[in-house]
Amino acid sequence: MEIVSVENAEHYVWGEKCDGWHLANSPVLSVIQERVPSGGREVRHLHRKSEQFFFVISGLATLEVEGRIYELSPNQGLHVPAGTAHQLQNDAHEDLVFIVTSTPPSHGDRVEQKV
């Protein structure tokens, strides 16, 4: 075991200039820190098997879940059950930094959804 941070975690880029760092990645658990610049968003989707918990570190997250809009400020989070369509975006002027925890890991379990 070792202490993990964005300095030594596996990094990847998604969308248009969004960053992700795998803080924990096992067959049953995924913990990722992500950075979304102003105006950035993910595609609306659901996960058939994975449930997720989004927790904001800094910035403001707009999270649409099954048609309901949630505004998450720093130190606030929201649980999204498996099978629930959702879309995260950053409508604020500063970067959004958050943690998304998925169990089981959500990679390969994503189904894009139309609004």
Structure, explained:
By secondary structure, this protein is an all-beta fold. It has one domain: Jelly Rolls. It is built from no helices and 11 strands. The protein has a 6-stranded antiparallel β-sheet with strand order 1-2-3-10-5-8, with no helix packed on it. Strands 7-6-9 form a 3-stranded antiparallel β-sheet, with no helix packed on it. A two-stranded antiparallel ribbon has the order 4-11. Strand 1 and strand 2 form a beta hairpin.
How far do the termini sit from each other? Answer: 42 Å
- Element-level helix/strand string: EEEEEEEEEEE
The count of helical stretches stands at 0
Largest sheet: 6 strands, antiparallel
Question: How many β-strands, per DSSP?
Answer: 11
Q: Under the CATH scheme, which class?
A: Mainly Beta
Number of domains: 1
Task: Please name the defining characteristics of this protein.
0% helix; globular; 115 residues; 11 strands; Jelly Rolls; six-stranded antiparallel beta sheet; three-stranded antiparallel beta sheet; mainly beta
